[in-house]
Each structure stands twice: as C-alpha cells, then as structure tokens.
Specification:
This protein is of the alpha/beta class. Helices cover 29% and strands 29% of the residues. Among the domains are: 153 residues, ANL, N-terminal domain (Rossmann fold), CATH 3.40.50; 80 residues, ANL, C-terminal domain (GMP Synthetase, Chain A, domain 3), CATH 3.30.300. The strands form 7 sheets. The protein has a 7-stranded mixed beta sheet with strand order 6-5-3-4-7-8-20, with helices on both faces. A 6-stranded antiparallel beta sheet has the order 16-17-22-21-19-18, with helices on one face.
C-alpha cells in the first residue's frame, strides 16, 4: 500500500511545492528523490522487516525516512522528546532493532538488546506489511504503546484532485493527528509548512509569510494566541480553515475566535491514537456539535460514552491490557458525549476527568464555561480535589486579566457568580489565582 501511495505521488507535478522547512522549499520531485536516497542507505544498513525508531520531529528528512522505512517493510516508531529518561523508557517498551536520528541520519544498532518478542510485530512481518508504533500521552499513567498496521492506515488516503492549499503542520510527528495531517497534505498534492517553534508569534509569522490556508491546532494553543493578542497584531487573512481537537473546546473561546476571524471556518475534528482520525462535520463554525461521516468508522453511545469500531484500529497495546477493546471490535474511547435529536453529538469531556461530589457528577467544562463568562477571567481549568466529606470536590485555577481587585475579592466574585449559575455541588471549594495554565508539549492542559 505504501508503494501504491508513492506511485500516486509521482503523478503530482514534480516541481510543485511539497514541504517548506527552515524557510527552504522542497518539491514533490525532490521528496521522491530523497525517499529513494534514504531507502538505498537503509537497504545497505540493515535487512528489511526491522523495528526502527525515528528520533526527531517533522522535517524534510524525517518524512523521507518514514516512507523509506515503509518501503523496506519496517515498523517505525516516531519519538519526540528532550527528556532522555522518556526516550529510554519508550525504547525499552517498543523494543527496536535500530535508531535513526532524523537530522543527521545517524543509524545506531541495538542488536545487543534482549527483549521479549512481540506477536503484533510478527503478524505484520509475516504479512509483509509496514507498521507504526505510537505512544499515548500518558495523562492517566504510563504511556501506552500501540501497534498500527501502517499499510492499512495509509490505504485510506487517496490521491485525487490536486488542491493548491498551504497547510501548517502543528500537531507533532509522533501524534496520530500530526501523521493524519501529513498524509492528507501529500494525498492532495498540497504544501506542508513545518514550524521550527510552536509558539504563538512564530506560528503567526509563518501563517502570514507563507499565506497558510489550513491550520490544525488545539483549543489550548488557540487560547494562547488569543491571550497574546495574535489575532489583532498579525495578518491571518489567508486562513480559510482552522481545525481543532485533542481536548474539549469552550463555547466562550469558540465565540471569541469566530468574532476575531469572521472569514475563517472553524471545524472540530475527532480521533484517537487507537482508531485513527474520523471524518467529521461541524454543524457550523459557531457550534460545538458535530457528526461523524466516515465509511471506515462506526460509532455508538454506551452509557454516555463514545464507542468506535474502526477499519484503521490498532492491533493492540504492547505494554497494557486490551480491556478497552470489546471482543466484537469496539473501542471504548473514554470520551463522554451528549446526543442530539438531529443526529449531532457534543463531546463534553473525558470519563476519567469527571468529578464525583458525594455521588453527584460534575463535568469540568461545565464549570469552566460558567467562570469564563466573567469579563476579568482570561483562562481557567477545573479539576477534582480530595474531600473528607464528599470524597471529591471541585477546585479551579484561574488566570485573570489584571489585578484591579485584590485576590480575595476576585475569589469572592468568582464564587458568587458560580453560586448564581451552577448547582451548589458544582461550586468550587478552592480557587487558585495563577499567572498561567500549564500545558503539555502537545498543547493540552495539565495541572502541574
């Protein structure tokens, strides 16, 4: 399937822009030559059907190495981290034969490592297929390592009519959303702009310089852009579409974005590392309601939780039980949704993040929405706090625009507002005023 995908890329005009990285432009013809060069180097370095780590984020080289490894019927493991312990742990779990450092193309053999065999790898090699190993974000414990049939995954991307669009690749190389963006761009013969830094001003400068049309992002990063005054200070008029996902979007932020970018469509995306990205349809740019419209996926709602049956689901986890998968192929996503009569759904949060206050369930997004309506609040995040009386209670960290009032008065105003707009058990018992809400390297909120 990878060869079929690459053969279709050959039909794209060879001089058409494919990748812009470090302000240097690479054409589709150059990309195909680079893939072939990488393939020949890999061919000399080791036999086919090996497990190989690609160490590094998106670049012209890393993309070429990815496709070269797939041509060689290898299983590739993209790893991005500056934390040596994290890299070491992922290498131990995934059991690679080689590591390729993408920027230098240095190939390191790990043949001295003795790890237990993996049946998922064996299945792929026996079927003469390429594979992909991804790690979960690890927000609820150690990251789960999961194995994809990459030939199966790439078969869902078809090169049809060429589209002259400029995409900014924001989601990372080791993220299912990032890989989905890359494969979509190449399948359409469009242009991929790779950022050196994922910071609001740097991203805005790239959008302006290269007239970016499509920008996949996360609510957390879009909020950082809003707080930093990016939409007022930079010309982002080239943007036709912003897609957002990976975490819940607040109605308040969505409204702000639409007001500041009135000519830009805003679409909610959805996907999991376990199932791949699902094609969705947002009811409108002002709405958080969406429909799933994907022939490769089925969905159903079980006790408010979204379940997915996917043609592109993983083979399984390497280092974790597979209890999230049912015997008949459904994946329990852990995402809670509300069903609407018109067939649309609203994603309201993670099952694991629900706060249990004496048996009453509280969704963090519901409390956050209430607090964000206060004109002096810039951002907030709600979480569970241990309580001797109710087991758990609601707590919140809040970023305010300026300390016009003293902190005690700000907290009082927030609590009074919550008492007026929320049920009593949803009112925060602890309010912390902070200068920022922390986020992960994937631009998802975290508390520490």
């Amino acid at each position: 399937m990878v060869d079929i995908f690459l053969n279709k890329l050959k039909k794209i005009p060879s001089n058409k822009q494919a990748i812009i990285f470090n302000s240097k432009t690479h054409s589709y013809g150059e990309l195909l030559i680079k893939i072939n060069d990488c393939y020949n180097i890999i061919l000399d370095a080791f036999d086919h059907k090996k497990v190989v780590v690609i160490l590094g984020d998106y670049s012209f080289s890393s993309i070429a190495i990815l496709f070269a490894l797939c041509k060689h019927k290898c299983i590739f493991i993209p790893i991005i981290s500056e934390n040596e312990q994290e890299i070491k742990k992922k290498i131990e779990v995934s059991n690679p034969d080689y590591i390729i450092e993408s920027s230098s193309f240095q190939i390191t053999s790990l043949k001295g490592n003795n790890h237990s065999p993996n049946s998922y790898y064996d299945d792929l090699f026996n079927s003469n297929k390429s594979g992909l190993v991804l790690f979960s974000s690890g927000s609820t414990g150690n990251p789960k390592a999961m194995v994809h049939d990459f030939d199966n995954l790439i078969s869902t991307y078809n090169v049809n009519k060429i589209k002259n669009l400029n995409f900014l690749v924001f989601l990372l190389f080791d993220h299912i959303g990032g890989l989905n963006t890359m494969l979509n761009i190449l399948s359409m013969g469009s242009t991929m702009i790779i950022p050196e830094k994922r910071e609001p001003e740097s991203i805005a400068k790239l959008i302006k310089k290269f007239k970016v049309n499509i920008f996949p992002s996360s609510p957390t990063f879009l909020n950082l852009m809003n707080i930093g005054g990016i939409f007022e200070n930079y010309d982002l008029s080239s943007l036709k579409l912003i897609t957002y996902g990976t975490e819940p979007m607040s109605e308040n932020l969505l409204s702000i974005l639409k007001n500041k970018l009135p000519k830009t469509r805003l679409i909610q995306t959805f996907g999991t590392s376990e199932t791949g990205i699902i094609k969705t349809k947002s009811k409108s740019s002002e709405s958080l309601l969406l429909k799933f419209e994907d022939n490769n996926q089925e969905i159903k709602i079980m006790d408010g939780e979204l379940w997915i049956k996917s043609k592109t689901r993983v083979l399984g986890y390497i280092n974790h039980d597979n209890n999230s998968f049912t015997k008949d192929g459904w994946f329990k996503t852990g995402d809670l949704v509300e069903e609407r009569e018109d067939g649309y759904l609203k994603i309201i949060g993670r099952k694991s993040k629900v706060i249990n206050v004496g048996g009453e369930k509280v969704l963090p997004i519901e409390v956050e929405e209430a607090i964000l309506t206060l004109d002096f609040v810039l951002d907030c995040t709600v979480y569970a706090k241990e309580s001797l009386i109710t087991g758990q209670a609601v707590a919140v960290k809040v970023v305010v625009k300026s300390l016009i009032l003293d902190i005690k008065q700000i907290k009082k105003n927030i609590k009074l507002h919550c008492k007026k707009t929320l049920e009593r058990y949803k009112v925060p018992v602890e309010i912390i005023i902070t200068d920022k809400i922390n986020f992960t390297s994937r631009f998802k909120r975290k508390l520490d």
